[in-house]
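Hello K.,

You asked for the raw outputs rather than the summary table, so here they are, unedited. I folded two proteins back to back in the same session to keep the settings identical. This is the first:
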Amino acid sequence: MEAFWLAAAKLGSGLWEEFLYLLPFLLLGVLLEAIIRTMKWHVKIRKALTHFGALSIVAATVLGAISPLCACATLPLVISLLLAGLPLAPAMALLVTAPLMSPANYTLLNWQLGAGWANTVLICAIALGLFAGYFTLFLRRFGITEDRIFRKALPAGDFHDPDYPVEELRCACGKQLSHRVDRCTHNRFLVFLAKYWEGLLKIGKFVLIGLVIEVVALTFIPTDWIEALLSGQGIWPIFALTFATIPLHLPQITAAAMVYGFVSPEFGEGIQLSKGAGIALLVGGPVTALPVLAVLISMFRRRVLALYLGICVTGTIALALLYRLAPFTL
């Protein structure tokens, strides 16, 4: 029993040291997102999406890369934009890009894995978003259009209404601390502080989950197995990681924190992350978020789920293989 508590204390101490090491960039990333949310810059861009015309796919991809929204929050937004007249192609670009990048994601990736990996994931997010948008646009000629994607007609109304009948789409933002502060004070600085606190709790939670997964994996999984996947130079790790992460809820921040624990020479095993495996895990894991797949299954026709999964899986594998073969490293 004493050995158990000693091992638990050692794991807890290591976890705490890693979290403290990441804390400065966690605070910076959350600060950037709180500023964006307080100034509502992403909302202004979102409202303009339906007016961008031929450039709407590019605009949606950019919005997805700078938006502080996670995958679960992006899907109701995408559905509301579809109901407001946004074509399916830019909606798909936004849905694919948003889980992969945000200001907090970028700053944390810089701190955890270096500027090279942060820039690589950013480029992959933009490339995958553009591919999703233009491939969906190409499929319009085969019947993949806005009027044939939902299983049934959605009831009219505002998703922000607490009485909206579709629970999966009903927005709970009115219960958030920042909205309560705004209603009571109308003070932008206090709203900013509330949004900063909300972001710190949400993003910090995902960082801790990633570190816990890493600590548990290093404790119970042979290091040779982990090293074979993360540092493997063949194509097997790419396919294995891409398909293994499909059923997992692995947000970008969690994935990055988990990888950091494996590759960090200070706190982890110092495993050398290969280019292909890194893309498969850091792109393939977040883009196939399990809650998003659940909503797609329940509300959309099967062709939409197949399109989304097909884009995410084939796009991840293609990006991983291309980067693996590239004669350079960012």
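The second followed immediately with the same parameters:
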Amino acid sequence: MPAELTLGWIGAGRMGSAMAARLLTAGLDVAVHNRTRAKAEPLAALGARLVDGPADLAGRDIVFTNLSSSDVFVDMVCGANGLLSRKGPSPRLLVDFSTISTEASALARKALAQRGAAMLDAPVSGNAKVVEAGKLSIVASGERAAFDLALPYLRLMARAATYVGEGEAARIVKICHNVFLGVVAQSLAEVTVLAEKGGVPRHAFLDFINNSVMGSMFTRYKAPAYVNLDFRPTFTPVLLRKDLDLGLAAAREMEVPLPLAAQVREILQSMIGQGYRDCDFAALLEVEAKAAGMTLAPEAVDVDTGL
């Protein structure tokens, strides 16, 4: 581990905080900026130095970003008060964990290159609970040397980091991943409601699914939310809609039909219109149940997340 390198972090939301905490607990030198400073205070308790703006991190060797949208990412890197807004030093490497468009990524990559800095696209699979369990997955693209420099730090945050090539390749992988996530989540909601309306308790149905060939890490760690109707947000319908929009835009550009993804996108739009904005996207289950004329109740069953 090249412990002498200094690290910067932009974005201390649920995911960003969980990931940065793993670097801090490893004893690394991390300075953090978040637009809402109070959200970063728990990281200060772990040893992070909080800074007022992204530009204050320009002298760090590696800067990590985990942000909510393409617009926010571009602003944090290239904006008037962004990472590159001042004359002087620039980081050696920017590693971005966000799910953003290939266009936004390419814009930042070009701006960083003009300052002699490299960029690694490194979107992730998992939520904060997955990070805490040490089971996060990362897909990365950019120069191979940039990946090799970042790899020791990626391994502190994730069980797997897969290099898929240069440029924006990791972006399309993550967009495809989140399109699949939306389709699977809606499908799981549909069959779970069908089973319950047929007289099967949710916990029993999901226990069978999780131990069948159709079970996965996703179905296991979402099972408690489905069983006990715990819709505290890990990933909101608004963010999932954003990712479906990215996938559908890429599909239009490349002339790839995505009929299932398009339908799920409209289901999410309807869901958001009904007021499901700040909850977890697992609330797709409740929306499906209402469409089936059912009112769900928590089952109060202790369900293993598999994490």
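The mean pLDDT is 94.

Happy to rerun anything if the numbers look odd on your end.

Regards,
P.
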